[in-house]
């Protein structure tokens, strides 16, 4: 498979399209957790009950009455190889929990991969809408349309006083998780992030790494999301997140301007050194690659680097993950072999920009 064809097949629309505030916001995501009444939660049900849930939802999703969904493809976790599940997780189309723990789970994916419906993850149903840039309201509108359509056909586990019932207490209520993926090199380089994170936590939001809870913020990419879903409406939760993220965008842009004023030549040197590393390395580890990609993306946004796609960070942060590297190679790779493949893929991707 050629690199061009691999990239075309591997890149989701949120990676290749450019949404609002794309210089800082890589993607916006809305996820709704739902369970089916009269079924045990996934943490308690049997394999037969798990299969029954999949069959029930698949029959519903095969109904063409909701035209906005388009064609949906079902992927059964027990029919996928570990590497295939890892690639789906690296693309943010399924959660680490579904990839690693749900033998009798499944995922329904739209053709453009903006919509995924995870089945038998921590809950029976998790509706996820993933959009490029700062589009939380648009993602919420789409998720709600899908949810309303499903609720006409499924008796959800719901309590009038509490809201939607979920496996994890922190999801009870609206069952909503809203999040944005942000590139914040300015706040890191000006050493402001350590004081900003506690302030965000005090507002009922949480800052995590690129793959959510327990993951590392590689390449200065952070995921900011709501922490609680009970006691607020969906629109209030999203509006609160939008308010905080808007402030972060403003602070990041101010930090970048301050860096240009105080350390312009040092910043330019950092950008071009990282570009040189990516363009010429024969071996590169994931952390170094993430750091260099962050610098290059910052250089593109600040106008130091010309003729490079603004989406290169989105693409290569995903394409250089272990699962993708091994899929590109056609089989398992040892860590050292992955570092060689990573360097090769990055060099070839950068050369494509100049063709």
TrEMBL record:
Keyword Cell inner membrane carried by entry: no
Pfam family of the protein (one): ATP-gua_Ptrans
Keywords, comma-separated and alphabetical: Allosteric enzyme, ATP-binding, Kinase, Nucleotide-binding, Transferase
Residues holding ATP: 27-31, 92, 126, 177-181, 208-213
Reactions that this protein is recorded to catalyse: L-arginyl-[protein] + ATP = N(omega)-phospho-L-arginyl-[protein] + ADP + H(+)
Keyword ATP-binding found: yes
EC number: 2.7.14.1
Broad enzyme group: transferase
Activity regulation text: Appears to be allosterically activated by the binding of pArg-containing polypeptides to the pArg-binding pocket localized in the C-terminal domain of McsB.
Domain Phosphagen kinase C-terminal: 24-255
SUPFAM superfamilies per the UniProt record, alphabetical: Glutamine synthetase/guanido kinase
Motif (RDXXRA motif of the pArg binding pocket involved in allosteric regulation): 338-343
GO molecular function: protein arginine kinase activity
Function, in words: Catalyzes the specific phosphorylation of arginine residues in a large number of proteins. Is part of the bacterial stress response system. Protein arginine phosphorylation has a physiologically important role and is involved in the regulation of many critical cellular processes, such as protein homeostasis, motility, competence, and stringent and stress responses, by regulating gene expression and protein activity.
HAMAP family membership: Prot_Arg_kinase
Record-stated family: Belongs to the ATP:guanido phosphotransferase family.
Protein name: Protein-arginine kinase
Organism: Cytobacillus eiseniae
Gene: mcsB
